[in-house]
Design brief:
The chain starts with 6 loop residues before the first helix and ends in a 7-residue tail after the last helix. The chain has a single domain, classed as Orthogonal Bundle (Arc Repressor Mutant, subunit A), CATH 1.10.10. The chain is globular. It contains four helices and three strands. InterPro entries: Metal_resp_DNA-bind_regulator, Tscrpt_reg_PadR_N, WH-like_DNA-bd_sf, WH_DNA-bd_sf.
């Protein structure tokens, strides 16, 4: 069974990764895929949406005769990430409460 990731949570994952360093699209997709079952075709619409909401900005850098588009989190994106982290912590605590804290019942 694979648990589906909501778009809000995926947004948070992308913003969280970009909080630490800028990535170009393919490398960012690979980084997300290290921890989540997300297709490559899912990532670019996510990046477009985050940019449209002004949570990301882009810049190009030449690489072997081509340009790579890099993504950078904005201050607005950092603010959004704080909210997502807060919601995630509340959600996680609720789920852990329902599933049990990991302690065995006696």
């Amino acid at each position: 069974m694979a648990i589906k990731m909501s778009s809000e949570l995926l947004d948070g994952c992308v913003l969280g990764i970009l909080e630490h360093q800028d990535y170009y699209g393919y490398a960012l997709t690979q980084r997300v895929q290290e921890s989540a079952d997300v297709s490559k075709s899912t990532m670019y619409p996510v990046l477009r949406r985050l940019k449209k909401n002004q949570w990301l900005t882009t810049y190009d850098k030449p690489y072997h005769g081509r340009n790579r588009r890099y993504y950078r989190i904005t201050q607005s994106g950092k603010d959004k990430l704080v909210g997502i982290k807060k919601e995630w912590n509340q959600f996680q605590a609720g789920i852990n409460n329902m599933l049990g804290s990991g302690e065995q019942d006696e």
